[in-house]
TrEMBL record:
Transmembrane segments: none annotated. Signal peptide: none annotated. Its main location: membrane. It is found in: Cell membrane. Residues 44-152 form the NADH:ubiquinone oxidoreductase-like 20kDa subunit domain. Keywords: 4Fe-4S, Cell membrane, Iron, Iron-sulfur, Membrane, Metal-binding, NAD, Quinone, Translocase, Transport. The lineage of its organism: Bacteria, Pseudomonadati, Bacteroidota, Sphingobacteriia, Sphingobacteriales. Its EC number is 7.1.1.-. Binds 1 [4Fe-4S] cluster. It is an enzyme of class 7 (translocase). It holds the Pfam family Oxidored_q6. NDH-1 is composed of 14 different subunits. Subunits NuoB, C, D, E, F, and G constitute the peripheral sector of the complex. This is NADH-quinone oxidoreductase subunit B. GO terms for molecular function: 4 iron, 4 sulfur cluster binding; iron ion binding; NADH dehydrogenase (quinone) (non-electrogenic) activity; NADH dehydrogenase (ubiquinone) activity; quinone binding.
């Protein structure tokens, strides 16, 4: 919030002050503090996510207390646990159904790199099929680590310009993963 400053009103205008900031900063701040997570949990990291959402850690103070189980109503995909290669197309479909802007957190060693499961049937990191914004290490990560990942994502969201999703770089990133950016 250091970028948003309370300024003095110009002479002749009543009031104690007004906010002076860019639209990018104001919208970024609103987005960062109202992330709606879509949990995609398959194993032990999902249990840690449940603990994170419980009263002890109070994820509501980060603006993410509303879990969404519909991809069309979520903007933060949290992939937790082992992702088998057969689940890859389902995960891609869930990601593609989310509206822009959307962000992804890979929670735990399995979602980040396949974990201890270096086998033919386990995806060796979800970044093989969808772009990832934040990686949360651990096997499984503690709730504090998951909240740290959310706070890191909030910093990314806060500083993201409004037109980033229309840039050629972002469209090239999505095309690298096989997503159509023409429509």
């Amino acid at each position: 919030m250091s970028d948003i400053k309370l300024a003095e009103a110009p002479p002749g205008i009543q009031g104690s002050g007004f906010f002076a900031t860019s639209l990018d900063k104001a919208i970024g701040l609103a987005r960062a503090n109202s992330l709606w997570p879509l949990p995609f949990a398959t194993s032990c990291c999902g249990i840690e996510f449940m603990a994170t959402m419980a009263a002890t850690y109070d994820a509501g103070r980060f603006g993410m207390e509303r879990n969404s189980f519909s991809p069309r109503q979520a903007d933060m995909l949290m992939v937790m646990g082992t992702i088998a290669k057969k689940m890859g197309p389902v995960l891609r479909q869930v990601y593609s159904q989310m509206a822009e802007p959307r962000w992804v957190i890979a929670v735990g060693a399995c979602a980040s790199s396949g974990g201890i499961f270096d086998t033919y049937s386990v995806l060796q990191g979800i970044d093989e099929i969808i772009p990832v914004d934040v990686y949360v290490p651990g096997c499984p990560p503690r709730p504090e680590a998951i909240l740290d990942g959310v706070m890191r994502l909030q910093e990314i969201v806060k500083d993201e310009p409004l037109n980033r999703r229309q840039t050629p770089e972002y469209k090239a990133l999505l095309e690298k993963y096989g997503f159509n950016t023409n429509g």
